[in-house]
Amino acid sequence: MDWASALALMLGLLVLLMFAGLPVAFAFLGVNIAGAFLFLGGEVGLDQMARNTMAAVSNFALAPIPLFLLMGEILFHTGVAFLAIDAIDRLIARVPGRLSIVSVAGGTVFSSLSGSTIANTAVLGSALLPEMLKRGYHPTLAMGPIMATGSIAMLIPPSALAVLLGSLAGISIAQLLIAGIIPGLMMATAFLGYIIIRCRMNPSLAPSYEVTEMSLFERWRPFFIYVVPLLGIFVVVVGSILAGWATPTESAALGSVASVIAAAAYGKFDVSKLIQALLETAKISVMILFIIAASVTFSQILAFSGATNGLLKLIETVGASEFALLLAMLGILLFLGAFMDQVSMIMITLPFFIPLAQSLGLDLLWFGVLMLVVMEISFTTPPFGLLIYVMKGVAPKSISLGQVYAAAVPFIVLELIVLGILILFPEAATWLAHLTRS
Predict the structure, then answer these.
(1) Domain ranges of the chain
(2) pLDDT tens digit string along 282-300?
(3) pTM, rounded to two decimals
(4) H-assigned helices in 210-341
């Protein structure tokens, strides 16, 4: 079988199984069984598939994924995250779109404490959305900032997806984690600017209301009690990596311990909440590891069938420029992001994109950051962006799915603008990571 037929068979079968409603992990498994039998030597191929599975899930480089997720789940289920958001709420006084700004500021802070976009969005939605809708905020300025800021957790460390991408693409995990800080802050700044400008142009989008008068001490006291100590967790995680004192895995373990200590210090810790956080972490981690295990054999089948090399040679004969090929890869990711989850996007595209990026001489750290930004955008891309459905779950029943889609669109445009800046000025994505390396 020639490489084009093999590629069409593998990808076609995968798409067919997913459209049939099979979970992504099982779709990969079904394709792998067929591919291993056809291209890896029958029963020998099935034995190799079992060995690949064991090697994939026992990779120590993936250990930070459940640990980063656990950090956010502990702060979410114990309620410590809500204390921090309330403290930030007190600091922001009479400004246009006040609660929308609180959601961006609070969400950015929580992003530095959680490796989970789902936990980030759920916290913001539960804490702020009811109050925003009650005060007459337009759904775009109520739900849009929450979804957009929730996805920032994938860029600002600790990021479970950055660990996954770095380990599979051969990019330094520590460098990729640090490189995500500046793009994440650029996103947050763009969101804040948009909210302020829109609310000044049309105040009815976010009606103003009287804020309880407080003394300076009353405003700042909760911030120093509930926010500054929690930022110590971010310092523990990122600072230990920057200083070279800990690997990403060790820093993730330190962050999880610090989260438990923080919950206990605020009197919010109990065993039942810890068990709940562990169960939620296990659910997400098992899904991710299952897909990773399946993807190893998937990549191997593509290589043995000649599909990977055949496609790369075909692209070389087209003679497209480096910039055009980069845009094509990012465009494919944007398209896939409208229909599938981020882990699956990585698994399907990495076997082709990383060899192609290397052949083009692209900086893999920069390319990794661009991939993370595109996947961050895809969290809110209709019709199947994950955070769209998280938001629909926490929103009142009166909010339609169409309203959630409409709320996401302006912030997707802002994220695309930031992506364009990062493409045109690569140093914006890599200078901090390179600075720490020097």
Answers:
(1) 59-269+305-437
(2) 888 887 787 777 777 777 7
(3) 0.83
(4) 216-222, 228-234, 240-242, 248-265, 271-304, 307-318, 322-337
